[in-house]
Amino acid sequence: MMREPVPLTMVPPDIDIVLVAINAGRGLRRRLNDMGLNEGVRFRVVQSQMAGPCIVAVDSMRFMLGHGMARKILVREA
Amino acid sequence: MKKLTIALAGNPNCGKSTVFNALTGARQHVGNYPGVTVEKKEGTLKYKGYEINVVDLPGTYSLTAYSIDELVARDYVLDEKPDVIIDIVDASNLERNLYLTTQFIELGVPLVIALNMSDLAKKQGLKIDDKRLSELLGRYFIPTVANKKEGIDELLDTAVKVAEEKNTLRKTTISYGKEVNEELGKIEEIIKGDGDLPLKYSSRWLAVKLLEEDKEVIKDIMPSSSSSSILGQAEKSRHHLNKIFGDDAEAIIADRRYGFISGACSEAVKRTYEIRHTISDRIDQILINRILGLPIFLVLMYFVFKWTFVLSEPLMGYIEAVQGWLGGAAGGMLPGGSAIQGLVVDGIIGGVGSVLIFVPIIFLLFLAIAILEDSGYMARAAFIMDKIMHKIGLHGRSFIPMLIGFGCNVPAVMATRTIDDRKDRITTILVNPLMSCGARMPVYALLIGAFFPAAMAGRVLFSLYILGMVLAVIMAKIFRRFLLRGPASPFVMELPPYRIPTIRGVIIHMWQRGALYLKKAGTIIFAGCVLIWFLSSFPWEPQYSRDYDGMIAQVEQKLASMKDVELPEQGEEEEADYLAGLTPHQKIKMELQSGIENIENKMGMEKLEKSYAGRIGHAIAPVFAPCGFNDWRTSVGLIGGFIAKEIAIMQFIIIAAAVTGSVILLVRQFMKGYRGEGGCDSCSGNTQCSSNCRGKIR
């Protein structure tokens, strides 16, 4: 259902997804890369809130992304 | 004994501080890195004939110098050149953690890797072959379980060996693919031609950083002679790579680095099974539930404060009692009325007491915060508060410093270092003092006691705290609107798994923050108390306008003639009833007695007025006139408040001792003067006023 890239905010929890692109400035992009959220990484949403932050799982790590941040991350179903 | 310096590095939440505690135990010292508000934790240990200094670097994901923490860690490694770096990696998240490790390898520093929490990794179905990892990455990997102290000795052995031999298992070069490697080679060649640069940096690392366009590194190499040709080549290489790959060199490098790591991991790590929903996830379903999250959080905060205040109250009572007893004992041993007695009793014992009185409240609050932090809940609190904090232009992360601000603003401002964005950080620091810290409690208590009936005290106190928070929100909005414009930065933060905090860890964390308060705030408050005592007691024997001693002697003479008149004990009855029951003789005796007090108070008052503090008070009183208290005595008290809020109270107590005997009456009197109700001149709010103005004050 999600062959096309969609913002992370629109992804329901517990579906395996792949990071396609980060539409952010280089500083933020570098930050995310350092934490392990780089293009091509497989991860999933654990919990998300309307207009609030969401939690994603990369391996056994959990990251919280602010809503604004999550909107800039494009993903597709793995 | 030979000396060694070991630096501990690692991602946040990799168990770094557990390793640090396991290595150094209680021999720790917390300071600051010069110029920045980043905690510098150091500890020492003796091991097999070595005296080892362990430095705990701030937790970082990378060495890209994105935040102050990362910059500090990197500068330490580059400038201080520790003998060996122990990179602590969370074995259950190996790939992400090795990202930092690869950068250390590139930096070419002596390195040992601690595969920490290896028991947890096993439980999660990961089988890590540490020997194979050591071969692949060319550095020693030592499995450890720091909270059970497993593997710590082997880690130390290896670290000492690496530090002594200054060699590594094998030279490892991380390959970034043919094109990138070629460009890196070109930059490296120019760097190697430079006289100084290769001495300080590994040329490979420098080349990678330049391709990544690391601003700090660019700044660092600016002074060198070949900087322009190096930067020119880097620029060209970036451009070239961008054309080939259609992407930033930086992104390509990050991608290749992860590629290298996952290559190594696929050989050395076997996943036997996968747990998709950990216990932490299940706890999170409740604790950060979109409906339950906030109420649970508020209830938790309520208990934190309840427990802090309820438990600290009796402790504060003990401290006060001990202080009073000490003051009495010391006063008795020293010559009465002398300056030395005043210094010891009012200055030193009073000063130490006013620092110690906050110890219970602050340590208990820090204990509660340490438990919340070590258990992993604090990060969730940021998650819960993020939406609300965003509305006021702050950050989910601003919340933790604000919370600590209720204990003491000093460590609270220090805690803002975890906020990456400069504007967010500064706004948080600026509004932090509006959070009512523990030291302000006595000020509030005094004002509430003076102006509100006891039944309302709790509500008034609560509303003062709320008022502070509301003001903080308004000020944050204003700062964000006019001074520090720009959208609130989007944020990303790791949620550590829930852990049961260890008693040892919690105590150490409480102690570190509390000690910081004692050191920073304590010394200033103490010095302030002594200074204020000095200012308000000297000159010791001023020139009085009237002969008070003579006046007292006269009254005493009259009293002596009435020796045989006995005053009945004053019971529970009203003042007026008590007076009505006295014989005329008894009334005269009472008036004489209060007359002496009256004269002594006037003398004390004049002494204070002529003291240095009084003179300063007079000079600055007009400044406070718009606030409604154009009185030199309030000004004297408020001067002390500049040093620490509670010194204002100390000062009022000292003034009260000279004037009325009761601080509450004193404060009322100040305010009354401004309300124009008028206390009578003869009594200055004296409890025994003959013209009966006390009734009005009440």
What key phrases describe this protein's structure?
heterodimer; A: 78 residues; alpha+beta; SH3 type barrels; six-stranded antiparallel β-sheet; 6 strands; globular; B: 698 residues; alpha/beta; seven-stranded mixed β-sheet; two-stranded antiparallel ribbon; disordered C terminus
Overall body shape of chain B: elongated
Helix content of chain A: 10-25%
> What is the helix tally of chain A?
2
Largest interface: A-B, 40 and 45 residues
pLDDT below 50 for ≥5 consecutive residues: which ranges of chain B?
672-698
Shape of chain A: globular
Low-confidence stretches of chain A: none
Q: Reading side by side through the largest sheet of chain A, how are the strands ordered?
A: 1-6-2-3-4-5
Report the end-to-end length of chain A measured between terminal Cα atoms. 11 Å
- The DSSP helix count of chain B reads 31
What kind of oligomer do you see?
A: heterodimer
